[in-house]
Design goal:
single chain, 16 helices, about 75% helix, about 0% strand
Length: about 300
Amino acid sequence: MTALLSTLDQMAFLLICMLAGFLLNKLHILPENSDTVISRLENYVCVPALVISSFQKYCTPKNLADNWTLILYCALFVLLGLAVAMPLGKKFAEHPGEVGIYRYSLVIVNFGFMGNALVQGLLGDEMLFKYLIFCLPANIFVYTVGMVWLTAGKEKFTPKMLLTPTFAYVLIGMAVGLFQIPFPSFVNKAFSACSSCFSPLAMILTGFVIGKFDLKKLVTKGRVYLLTVLRIVVMPLIFLLIAKLLRLPQEAQTLVLVFSAMPLGLSTIVFPAAYGGDETPGASMAVISNVIGILTVPLMMSLVI
């Protein structure tokens, strides 16, 4: 019960921030392109600060040696997601241009923005460090196969894609931690302050983007409800069962569940929009999954903490 209430409290905090972003859009308090500004703040200020400050503290040779297998675990569950997504993506899509969007959603949820926020708020900074390591294969997938799928093949794979922004920040953070590169106290304060902004800004961004759409149209897509239940309830439970059968460490089981049970994110809106694709399916999945996730995420987390 304690775990359930703690997760509900964290989800409520994130929901309030999301609602703030939604109202900022609907009431026209911020300009229409504010999501671009907030996104850049997240990706070029808050995320680097979050990653580097975490790795500066916890990235030691011993911690890396103890936790490198987390990368393999994540890769395994990405592959399992692919095994589900390849046949089912076509079943959910109304036309060929949507196949990649649905396949992506069956593999990747909002493990970054919401996952990072939940882990940091609920499980602490040390688990956040482990979660960032765990998610490296998923980050690479997002910016390679994910980009190709979400742009309906308009974005072609290149080796340069493998160096994702998060991967670059992790490399910098590893160097800082392993070589114990000292920063002046004011730099550490800046990193701490900017990383503290990560969670609220991420959810404000989510709410702001959702606020661009007609909610009535988004919540009437019946197939999205089915996909959402499959993706954030059924698949996480199966993944957790597999993790238990493989006898993964308890911490790894927790990370597997966080990674797989979050609501669906913004990539299915942002990437298609950038290439002239339909943003509606992604927006519908984001709205419905975030509403359902208010209850499902706490229930899921109560299974592992």
